[in-house]
Amino acid sequence: MTAKPGIGDKAPAFELPSDGSGHVSLASLKGKKIVLYFYPKDDTTGCTKEAIEFTGLKAKFAKAGAQVIGVSPDPVKAHDKFKAKYDLDLTLLSDENRQMLETYGVWVEKSMYGKKYMGVERSTFLIGADGKIAQVWRKVKVDGHAQAVLEAVQSM
User: Fold this and answer.
1) Separation of alpha carbons 56 and 98, rounded Å
2) Per-residue pLDDT tens over the stretch 100-144
3) Distance (Å, rounded) from C-alpha 88 to C-alpha 42?
4) Angstrom distance (rounded) from CA 105 to CA 138
5) Which of 19, 46, 85, 139 has the most C-beta neighbours closer than 10 Å?
6) Can 47 be counted among the known catalytic residues?
7) How far apart are the first and last CA of the chain?
8) How far apart are CA 142 and CA 104, in angstroms?
9) How far apart are CA 14 and CA 95, in angstroms?
10) Beta bridge partners of 138
11) Which letter, b or e, does each residue of 60-81 get, where b requires 16 or more Cβ atoms within 10 Å of its Cβ?
12) How would you write the chain as a 3-class SS string?
């Protein structure tokens, strides 16, 4: 296991399939601010609320020069259904083999009711236009998170 990337580190490269049959790579976003948020599962309570909050602030993120991208291990087909059901206006990437999740250090051991399992730690990385990580939020609580990330983007 590699060290978790942190503030000041070069953002690890990625290329993944996205909703709508697209592909997104870090290289294709060069020169832009990127809000990369990792979430456990499409169409669950917390993940839905988080996606709706980011969608609601999309115009403000765009005005601040940032693109918001969500990443989960769900397949592209699930992302397409999730976006359609809640009218989400975000790019969602599918990391079914969990390579990017592991590279960013968000595929972790979790525990629920005393049972251990592997899953996504809800986390957000703010990547500057220079390709370096400007801020990291780990173990994110959904309420107010999108607004806090927007404020960080606006202060860059």
Assistant:
1) 28
2) 999 999 988 888 788 888 888 899 999 999 999 999 999 888 888
3) 11
4) 10
5) 19
6) yes
7) 31
8) 19
9) 10
10) none
11) ebeebebbbbbbbbbebebbbe
12) CCCCCCCCCECCCCEEEEHHHEEEECHHHCCCEEEEEECCCCCCHHHHHHHHHHHHCHHHHHHCCEEEEEEECCCHHHHHHHHHHHCCCCEEEECCCCHHHHHCCCEEEEEECCEEEEEECCEEEEECCCCEEEEEECCCCCCCHHHHHHHHHHCC
Is the distance from CB of 20 to CB of 80 less than 8 angstroms? yes
Q: Which of 39-43, 44-48, 60-64 has the lowest mean pLDDT?
A: 44-48
Q: Name the active-site residue from 47, 71, 100, 127.
A: 47
C-alpha distances in Å from residue 146, one per residue of 17, 55, 115: 24, 9, 30
- Mean pLDDT over residues 71-99, rounded? 93
**65: which 2 tokens?**
């020069």
- Quote the crossing angle between the two packed helices 45-56 and 76-86, to the nearest 10°: 60
Answer yes or no: are the C-beta atoms of 57 and 63 closer than 8 Å: no
